[in-house]
Write a structure and sequence with these properties.
With 142 residues, the chain is α+β, with helices and mostly antiparallel strands. It has 4 helices and 5 strands; from the N terminus they run βααββααββ. Helix 1 packs antiparallel against helix 2 and helix 2 packs antiparallel against helix 4.
């Protein structure tokens, strides 16, 4: 299992870099070419949501992305440190259908759920983790 970690400051310009890195790693892990646009768009949406939250609550804190190749899956976790006042910390992922409109923030999570094969959201007063994954062929790196 290979892992890549990326942190960036809460600037919209860095979202493009995160999308490019995620797409390149997805390609190397064997995600089908037809799914790469979905990876790029979902990661971009999750990062844009994190940037917006950080700019409002903690502009000096970095946003963290973890990209993993794990057991035939390409997994991306976008973690922000912006507090979620309306939701207590969750040990299990949230049911996306049960989230309030204010938490969905412009349908961002709904878009992500439509693009990723599997999505889990872990909000807490200390931030939110959005975990997305897609099937990967597990092509070994040269």
């Amino acid at each position: 299992m290979a892992t890549v970690e990326l942190t960036f400051s809460a600037l919209p310009a860095h979202v493009r870099t995160a999308r490019l890195v995620a797409t390149a790693i997805a390609r190397r892990t064997g995600v089908e070419e037809s799914l790469l646009d979905e990876v790029r768009l979902a990661v971009g949406e999750a990062c844009s949501r994190a940037v917006e939250a950080h700019r409002a609550h903690c502009p000096g804190e970095p946003i963290r992305i973890e990209l993993r190749d794990d057991a035939g899956r390409f997994e991306v976790t976008v973690s922000d440190q912006a507090p979620s006042d309306e939701i207590q910390q969750q040990e299990k992922p949230l049911d996306l259908g049960m989230l309030s409109d204010s938490f969905m923030t412009g349908f961002g999570l709904a878009v992500i759920a439509g693009l990723a094969d599997d999505v889990e959201v872990f909000p807490s007063p200390k931030g939110t983790d959005i975990r997305m994954s897609w099937p990967a062929a597990g092509i070994p790196s040269p």
